[in-house]
């Protein structure tokens, strides 16, 4: 069986991420030093030292997670542990990390793309009054009906019974109350900066499309899966279109992971903080094998 790499999305970040990798590996030090140079600000310092409020900002955490994921990938490669990796996929922001690992663009190009995506999404958050909520323990059909009734969108299908909704604050609040009234088990408002993966991100989508227009993409060297459909995508033009669409459309993460496993992936290797993706995978199919890597000590376990 072949290994699939899973890259983390926004929300997984935590202060200190990547510090042990930086201290232990010249290759990782070079990545973080290049990131600081490309961005023109100290991503490494914010990743390693915080403060948490700064690291949580969309324009910071997206490039921070991108660099951290590729630092983990670099250590696996450096230690000869990558083995037969044939697939890569990522949750939301992590999809861009997966394309870099698959050779669609190089590190510095990918970092610039991610930084611009994060900047545009934060800008869209600041221009709108959006939020998100988690609906736990309900079917897709029930959540889609709730969204239709209150004019909000299903933003993330993370795992069976773990769905995130997104939209204007007042409409999400009304949907939360209605969900409780309908007997939904758990409907929880989330503390987020905006309505990600919804129509409120349209200003970011439009500007991101213009930004990507002249950047060359290569065909991926690994099988990669897009959040927009849950299916594999290989044409560079289609990849670019998927990244633009992803800004305003639902993240079909459960579908992506199921498709990877159906294509022969196993084990799944999570590259990112907090074992977030491992938890989602186990919620989807308990027997799946998921190995999580976040810091240097995980490589000797």
Automatic annotation (TrEMBL):
GO terms for cellular component: cytosol. GO terms for molecular function: [acyl-carrier-protein] S-malonyltransferase activity. Residues 6-296 form the Malonyl-CoA:ACP transacylase (MAT) domain. One of its GO terms (biological process) is fatty acid biosynthetic process. Its EC number is 2.3.1.39. Keywords: Acyltransferase, Transferase. InterPro entries: Ac_transferase_dom_sf, Acyl_transferase_dom, Acyl_Trfase/lysoPLipase, Mal-CoA-ACP_Trans/PKS_FabD, Malonyl_CoA-ACP_transAc, Malonyl_CoA-ACP_transAc_FabD, Malonyl_transacylase_ACP-bd. Pfam families: Acyl_transf_1 (PF00698). The active site is at 92, 197. PANTHER family: BLL0263 PROTEIN, MALONYL-COA-ACYL CARRIER PROTEIN TRANSACYLASE, MITOCHONDRIAL. Belongs to the fabD family. This is Malonyl CoA-acyl carrier protein transacylase. It comes from Synoicihabitans lomoniglobus. The lineage of its organism: Bacteria, Pseudomonadati, Verrucomicrobiota, Opitutia, Opitutales.
């Amino acid at each position: 069986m072949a290994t699939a790499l899973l890259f983390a999305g926004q929300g997984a970040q935590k202060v200190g991420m990547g510090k042990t990798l930086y201290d232990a590996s010249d290759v990782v030090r070079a990545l973080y030093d290049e990131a600081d140079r490309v961005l023109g600000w100290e991503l490494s310092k914010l990743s390693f030292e915080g403060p948490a409020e700064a690291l949580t900002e969309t324009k910071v955490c997206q490039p921070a997670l991108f660099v951290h994921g590729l630092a983990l990938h670099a250590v696996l490669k450096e230690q000869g542990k990558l083995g037969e990796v044939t697939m890569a996929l990522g949750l939301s922001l992590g999809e861009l990390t997966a394309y870099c690992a698959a050779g669609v663009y190089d590190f510095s190009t990918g970092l610039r793309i991610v930084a611009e995506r994060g900047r545009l999404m934060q800008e869209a958050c600041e221009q709108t009054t959006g939020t998100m909520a988690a609906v736990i323990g309900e079917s897709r059909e029930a959540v889609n009906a709730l969204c239709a009734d209150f004019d909000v969108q299903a933003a993330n299908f993370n795992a069976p019974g773990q769905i995130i909704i997104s939209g204007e604050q007042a409409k999400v609040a009304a949907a939360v109350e209605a969900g409780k009234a309908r007997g939904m088990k758990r409907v929880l408002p989330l503390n987020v900066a905006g309505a990600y993966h919804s129509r409120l991100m349209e200003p970011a989508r439009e500007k991101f499309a213009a930004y990507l227009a002249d950047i060359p993409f290569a065909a991926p060297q690994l099988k990669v899966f897009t959040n927009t459909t849950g299916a594999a995508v290989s044409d560079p033009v289609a990849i670019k279109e998927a990244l633009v669409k992803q800004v305003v459309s639902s993240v079909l993460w459960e579908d992506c992971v199921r498709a990877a496993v159906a294509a022969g992936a196993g084990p799944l290797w999570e590259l990112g903080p907090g074992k977030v993706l491992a938890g989602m995978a186990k919620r989807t199919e308990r027997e799946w094998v998921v190995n999580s890597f976040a810091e240097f000590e995980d490589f000797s376990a």
